[in-house]
Structures are given as C-alpha cells and as structure tokens.
Amino acid sequence: MIDFEELDYQKTPLGEISLRRRAEPRLGGKILYEVKLGDEFLMSSLFTEAEIQLARIGLDAVDAPDLDVVVGGLGLGYTAVAALEHPSVRSLRVIDVMEPVIDWHQRELVPMGKVLLSDSRCTLVHADFFALVASTDGGFAGTGSDERVHAVLLDIDHSPRHWLNQGNRSFYSEIGLRNLSAKLHPGGVFALWSNDPPDAEFTRLLDAVFQSAESHVVTFPNPYTGGESTNTVYVAKCR
Fold first, then answer.
1. Contact criterion met (CB below 8 Å) for 63 and 156
2. What is the full DSSP assignment across 49-73?
3. Largest CA distance in the chain
C-alpha cells in the first residue's frame, strides 16, 4: 500500500491546487483524499457529514416535486452525490470555477467521480458560480435563458465572512443575495455550508431577502481530538 500519493497538481488563477491520497496511521491506515490550495487545506474525505447534510437539509425544505438543483462548488463531490440521492431531484447542475477539480471527477481520481458521471441527471459545469449569480443574462444555464431552479446548495467559501477569493465577498450582501433569489422559483431554497458557528448578522441578512431563514448546527465526530466538531448549514426560503 502506498502511504502517500499526490494524484494531481495544477496551477489555477486562485493558486496552486493539489489532490493527494494518503493512509492515516492514527486511524488504522484509513485512506483519505485531501485537497490543498497553496498551503491551505480546503477539504478532506474524513470530514464530509456537513457537506452531506447541506444537501439533505436544503432539499428537504423545498415543497415541490421534480426538483432542478444547482450545487455551487464540486469539491470531492459529497454534496452533489447526496443531492442525487434525494428522491425528488430531476436535474443537478454542479458549478465549479476550478477546472482541475472537474477533471479529477471525470478521470475518476476521487471516489465520487464515477457516481456523478454515471447519473444522467448530473452535469458538471466549469464556470464561476458568483459571476453567474451576478449576471442579469438569465439563470444558471449560461445560455441567456431565464431558467429558474428550485434549490441552490452552496459550498465554496469557508464562511460568509471568510472567502476563498476576495472577489466572492459581494455575494454575501443584500444585492448579491437578491440576485440569487431572482434565479429561484417561488418557494425555492438557498442552502449554504459554513465552517464557522451560526452568524446572527448573516441570518438577519437572509431574513431581509428571503421569506424565512434559519441556521442548523451539524455535529460530527473528530477522531483527531477525540471529541466533536461542528459546521453550520443556513437554509433560506424564497417568498
């Protein structure tokens, strides 16, 4: 067994991104997939519960059949796969600005790649999610059509206050969120993953734009600390 392997390393406009697979001796040799951007860890296959709950909590809040869903941020694919497991999902569009990340799935370098590629409902899109939201030229299809969706599940930035890219900041404003709400059907849902505890100010901002908003704390075991860690999932529903 190879204890450590760098599966891919590429330069992107946001910095150098790498995918690595390693055995974790502290967990009995468990195989982990990890993504780094520069020197910063972006994601790990060890901690995926909140990404999965982003899809489950968000989609359970939509009162409609035959859902058309957008996931902002492909990552290791756990949110997208959880969305496809929801019985009401009719179509899923997964948008990621990082072309290498899409390539990892298409080459099946990550475990979820085969699952996503084999499901005809799923389309992987290389595009800037935030630019699509800000655009007045239609919805998320990139075709200029005014196509709305039933749910948007977003997991790109670390939190509403800690951005992967400074340019993403404007999305977390009243104007940015209103642009997003215009791309949702009435009764549609916006759900957001955050690494930080619930932010009361951001929840109030969601309340100002959407009909209702709430935050969910997702708790999961942390084998490194021997305790538990938490993430937050915000859910906002359109009028």
1. no
2. HHHHHHHHHHHHT---SSEEEEEE-
3. 54
- Residue predicted with more confidence, 56 or 141: 56
Q: What is the pLDDT of residues 105-125, one digit of tens each?
A: 999 999 999 999 999 999 999
Residues 131 and 217 both lie in one domain: yes
* The model scores a pTM over 0.90: yes
* Residue 12 φ then ψ, to 5°: -135, 170
Boundaries of domain holding 131: 47-237
Q: State the Cα–Cα distance between residues 50 and 54, nearest whole angstrom.
A: 6
Please check the confidence at residue 131 and state whether its pLDDT lies above 90.
yes
33 shares a domain with 80: no
CA 134 and chain centroid, separation: 18
Are 15 and 101 in a shared domain?
no
User: Assign residue 209 a region: left if phi > 0, alpha if psi is -120 to 50, beta otherwise?
Assistant: alpha
Give the residue carrying structure tokens 């935050």: 215
